[in-house]
């Protein structure tokens, strides 16, 4: 009964916290709400008219939705780069940032699931993914494995921070014997969600662009570059607009993680380019289409030739110690690296896999306004959820929110 009373008090205090704030906070939440409403309107059109209102066709059946899904799986997995040093290795420098990182993971996973729902056409078909009712096809289907690992990782990233914050809300220390086993499991689970997603693409024999042994490791490298880069940007915003002060050394340690991951990601990219273009076969046509165009079709050229220079520039800037320790340069590098990997891992990975088709036909894909509207709405949803989680967590960690006995 006491725990229920504390939980009710926490919910009440959290609602009070998230509904009060500065004028900038209210403007931010209002903007996000407006974008979500626009996204809902676009989604209502898709529900009414079907996926025909998107740029996807029977030739290119995965587009902007699955591109964002693939990228956000990596953002969610990146939380492990803070969880392991904090909960397992007892590195106190990461302790300030770990709850923010896990909040970001929860938001990213919610966006992942929302993009899957959008790509399936509507929520009415989700019953197919329910074990025992729908056509779950476990364990043969890689999509089934993906559903399981995503929901499992979401559960871990909700329960572990909730337990810690619930104890702190009562003015008590969290018991390590309770949350450390879950934290250890989340480390392996984070690797699993990205590898399973990579295997989902690698297992499609008719798409040679994805039949690459480096796809799984490169997914992890790009995730551990883009995810912590976003965490650094979020921490910079939090320490500028709230009383929750993040130490410089915390940001510098996360920056080192981003640097190493970005370097590995770039090496793997060079390795893939060598494999595709040094001794090309007819299976290299997708890569040729992506980087140089094919038979006059070149819709993706502006995207990929924006991503590659940004990726190289960010990695070079991060590699030099003096530049990386200059926070203006660091934040700029993290931003362009995040954008570069979003393009590379989105349009640069998903769309070329369908071009040319199995019979050599080239049907190009570009997202429609409806797709873009739904996508922006889902990103706004993720930012909205993260803002609520972060504001509550920061209030508890600063001691502003406490259970009144």
What attributes does this structure have?
transmembrane helix; 405 residues; globular; Formate dehydrogenase/DMSO reductase fold; NrfD/PsrC family molybdoenzyme membrane anchor subunit; mainly alpha; NrfD-like
How would you characterize this protein structure?
It is a single chain. The chain is built from 14 helices and no strands. With 405 residues, it is an all-alpha fold. It has one domain (2-397): Formate dehydrogenase/DMSO reductase domain (Formate dehydrogenase/DMSO reductase fold, Up-down Bundle), CATH 1.20.1630. The two termini are 14 Å apart. The mean pLDDT is 86. InterPro entries: DsrP-like, NrfD-like. The chain crosses the membrane at residues 27-46, 66-85, 97-118, 147-166, 178-201, 221-242, 254-274, 300-320, 329-356, 376-401. It comes from Thalassobellus suaedae.
SSE layout:
Layout: H1 2-18, H2 23-49, H3 64-77, H4 80-88, H5 95-119, H6 142-169, H7 176-202, H8 215-241, H9 248-277, H10 285-292, H11 301-319, H12 321-324, H13 327-345, H14 369-397
Helix pairs in contact: 2-14, 3-5, 3-7, 3-8, 4-5, 4-7, 5-6, 5-8, 5-14, 6-7, 7-8, 8-9, 8-13, 9-11, 11-13
Percentage of residues assigned to helices: 55-70%
Radius of gyration based on Cα positions: 22 Å
Shape descriptor reads globular
Count of DSSP strands: 0
> Could you state the order of secondary-structure elements as H and E?
HHHHHHHHHHHHHH
**Class computed from helices, strands and strand pairing:** mainly alpha
Helical stretch tally:
14
Quaternary structure: single chain
Quote the average pLDDT: 86
- Look up the CATH topology: Formate dehydrogenase/DMSO reductase fold
Strand content: under 5%
- Quickly count the domains: 1
Catalogue the unreliable spans.
none
Q: CATH superfamily name?
A: Formate dehydrogenase/DMSO reductase domain
């Amino acid at each position: 009964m006491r725990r229920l009373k504390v939980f009710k008090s926490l919910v009440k205090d959290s609602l009070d916290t998230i509904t009060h704030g500065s004028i900038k906070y209210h403007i931010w939440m209002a903007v996000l709400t407006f974008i979500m409403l626009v996204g809902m309107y676009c989604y209502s059109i898709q529900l009414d008219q079907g996926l025909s209102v998107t740029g996807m066709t029977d030739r290119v059946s995965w587009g902007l939705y699955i591109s964002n899904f693939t990228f956000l799986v990596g953002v969610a997995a990146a939380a492990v780069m803070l969880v392991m040093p904090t909960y397992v290795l007892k590195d106190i420098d990461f302790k300030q940032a770990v709850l923010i990182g896990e909040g970001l993971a929860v938001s990213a996973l919610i966006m992942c699931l929302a993009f899957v729902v959008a790509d399936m056409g509507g929520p009415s078909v989700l019953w197919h993914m329910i074990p025992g009712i729908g056509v779950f096809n476990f364990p043969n289907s890689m999509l089934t494995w993906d559903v399981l690992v995503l929901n499992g990782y979401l559960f871990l990233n909700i329960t572990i921070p909730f337990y810690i914050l619930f104890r702190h809300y009562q003015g008590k220390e969290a018991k390590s014997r309770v949350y450390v086993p879950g934290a250890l499991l989340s480390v392996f689970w984070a690797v699993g969600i990205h590898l399973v997603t990579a295997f989902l693409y690698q297992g499609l024999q008719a798409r040679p662009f994805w039949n690459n042994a480096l796809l799984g490791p490169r997914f992890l490298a790009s995730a551990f570059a883009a995810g912590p880069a976003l965490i650094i940007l979020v921490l910079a915003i939090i320490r500028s607009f709230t009383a929750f002060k993040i130490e410089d050394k915390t940001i510098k340690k996360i920056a080192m993680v981003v640097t190493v991951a970005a370097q590995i990601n770039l090496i793997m990219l060079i390795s893939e380019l060598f494999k595709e273009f040094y001794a090309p076969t007819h299976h290299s046509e997708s890569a040729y289409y992506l980087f140089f165009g094919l038979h006059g079709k070149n819709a993706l050229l502006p995207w990929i030739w924006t991503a590659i220079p940004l990726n190289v520039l960010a990695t070079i800037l991060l590699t030099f110690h003096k530049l990386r320790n200059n926070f203006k340069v660091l934040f700029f590098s993290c931003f362009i690296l995040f954008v570069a990997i979003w393009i590379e891992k989105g349009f640069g990975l998903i769309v070329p896999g369908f071009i040319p088709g199995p019979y050599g036909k080239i049907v190009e894909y570009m997202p429609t306004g409806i797709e873009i509207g739904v996508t922006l709405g889902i990103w706004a949803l993720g930012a909205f959820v993260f803002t609520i989680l972060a504001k509550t967590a920061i209030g508890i960690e600063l001691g502003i929110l406490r259970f009144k006995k």
